[in-house]
Design a protein that fits this description.
alpha/beta; Rossmann fold; 4 domains; 17 helices; ABC_transporter-like_CS
């Protein structure tokens, strides 16, 4: 890392109706460093980076890159300045291949259009992304053999393990995240902004990403990484800037701060990293799964004979490397994915392959892995999302008309009890406008306040800040204490150990190991998660105190 300044943002202010997202924020980024950006959900981190990337225009303030003052009026201005951004929510076209998604929008003079009658005139650099998509839709294909090979080599070089000829819709969430990173790397950026890059990665994949980032910074790349995970900040960054309520609290050298220090800067108070869990008397079986089988979206078996049960007042944690059937299992257990074999009984009633409504009526709640795609209707209001599973309740409907006053009051209750921020009118603000963490809390509020008999929670704390993680974990414990049976799917082993009464390990669609947090051997769990094989240990350059070497 050099002491030379590469990017400087001075006195940035950005307001939206009723909200000051950035309030006179300043930060400086050095060449070749990995710079962390910390803050609670809604603290203004993504807004600040979207200003740097040209997606938003600042109301006040200046941006300097290599001592040149720049006007960032569009992402193209940022790209021209050597700045790339990987967004938390994917910007990919599912029906196109990985390579075509990466090529889209990049000037690529080597690529030409080829139709049934041979090459057509025109090169990619003269076309817009819309032109390209329309041409593809008209049965033209891009002559991208050379770029495709280059992208595959880039993927292999950094260990992303992606077939670049595969259509994006076939990829898992973690693979799509890696495609976004590849897209930025392919453009040879000088500054790479990563918004929650590990939110959908397994620990091994995250470690590999960090090694990749260190290699890239050794070669001169500069990185800004937004993350809510303090251990990642400690592990991989050189310095960190903290935002709170839109204001910049300060920039510090990472190695000089403890996790407690950083958490206190973020939320303005001490944060509990361990949750006390009282003993609870478990009741009757609320979920009984026998020989369950289900296929993924490609028609390939993803759940292979799962046997499991959950009792009232019990949290069962499911550990596994991403892509081993967790998503398909969770969706099968709530009725949004048909099964190909076996049975599901909720409260003693067979609901196998019944529609989702039957599961809801049986007292099942669901927190899906993808909160935007599956957890909400982004273009509908907070109010409509809050009562989404209760429209026909007499409280909200008299058979012919919805009671909007009752719906609004209920939505306000959810927002207040779960501390969902950035909302001044539940009727006017759409769910898709919320930050990731606040949307997650809204979904949890909707699902938990139904007082379910069974709660299936898939990655409930993924991509949220430490304050929200503390809050969500406490509410999961409260659900357990109220008698709800909980299936907790998480790739955070610490979370599973802290919250679970039992831990199951899934590998290639099968439950291969069962234990309790008290009796568990972490090494054994890690082995079972990888099919009984030793996980390949990646070499690291992390200093013994948890910070990056500044040599």
């Amino acid at each position: 890392m050099s002491d030379a300044e590469f990017v400087r943002m001075e006195n940035i202010t950005k307001t939206f109706p009723g909200v000051v997202a950035n309030d006179d924020v300043s930060m400086s980024i050095r060449k070749g460093e990995i710079h962390g950006l910390l803050g609670e959900n809604g603290a203004g981190k993504s807004t600040l980076m979207k200003i740097l990337y040209g997606l938003y225009s600042a109301d006040e303030g200046d941006i300097w890159v290599d001592n040149d003052r720049l006007e960032m009026d569009s992402p193209q201005d940022a790209i021209d300045a050597g700045i790339g951004m990987v967004h938390q929510h994917f910007k990919l076209i599912p029906r196109l291949s990985v390579s075509k998604n990466i090529i889209l929008g990049k000037r690529e003079p080597a690529a030409t259009f080829k139709g049934n009658n041979g090459p057509e005139s025109g090169v990619l650099e003269s076309l817009t992304s819309n032109d390209i998509v329309q041409s593809l839709a008209s049965r033209f294909t891009l002559g991208l053999d050379a770029p495709e090979k280059e992208i595959q080599q880039l993927s292999d070089e950094y260990g992303f393990d992606i077939d670049v000829t595969a259509p994006v819709w076939e990829l898992g969430v973690g693979e799509r995240q890696r495609v976004e990173i590849l897209k930025a790397l392919y453009r040879n950026v000088n500054l790479l902004i990563l918004d929650e890059p590990t939110a959908v990665l397994t620990p091994t994949q995250a470690e590999r990403l960090f090694e990749t980032l260190e290699k890239l910074t050794d070669e001169g790349l500069t990185v800004i990484i937004i993350t809510h995970k303090l251990d990642e900040i400690k592990q991989v960054t050189d310095r960190v800037t903290v935002l709170r309520d839109g204001k910049d609290i300060g920039t510090v050298a990472t190695r000089t701060q403890t996790s407690d220090d950083l958490a206190r800067m973020m939320v303005g108070r001490d944060v509990l990293f361990e949750i006390d869990k009282d003993d609870v008397s478990m009741g009757e079986t609320v979920l009984d799964v026998s020989a369950l089988r289900a296929e993924d979206d490609r028609g390939i078996e993803a759940v292979s004979g799962v046997e499991m049960n959950i009792r009232s007042g019990e949290i069962v944690g499911l550990a596994g490397v991403s892509g081993n059937g967790q998503k398909e299992l969770a969706e099968s257990l709530v009725g949004v994915r048909n099964t190909t074999g076996g049975s599901i009984r909720v409260g003693g009633t067979d609901v196998t392959n019944e529609p989702p409504g039957a599961f809801i009526d049986s007292g099942v709640s669901f927190v899906p892995e993808d909160r935007h795609k599956d957890g909400c209707a982004g273009t509908l209001s907070i109010m409509h999302n809050a009562v989404m599973k209760r429209y026909d309740d007499s409280e909200f409907c008299d058979r012919f008309r919805l009671n909007y006053e009752a719906m609004e009051k209920y939505a306000d209750t959810l927002v207040e009890e779960f501390d969902v921020r950035g909302i001044n009118d539940v009727r006017e603000i759409n769910a898709g406008e919320l930050s990731g963490g606040n949307l997650q809390k809204l979904i949890l509020a909707r699902e938990m306040l139904r007082e379910p008999d069974l709660l299936v929670a898939n990655q409930p704390t993924r991509g949220v800040d430490v304050g929200a993680i503390e809050f969500i974990r406490e509410r999961l414990i409260e659900q357990r204490q109220s008698g709800t049976g909980v299936l907790l799917l998480s790739e955070d082993l610490d979370e599973l150990f802290d919250l679970s009464d039992r831990i199951l390990v899934i590998y290639q669609g099968e439950v291969v190991h069962e234990t309790t947090p008290e009796e568990a051997d972490r090494q054994r769990i890690s082995l079972e998660m990888n099919g009984g094989k030793e996980e390949v240990k990646q070499s690291t350059k992390i200093a013994a105190d948890g910070g990056r070497s500044n040599s």
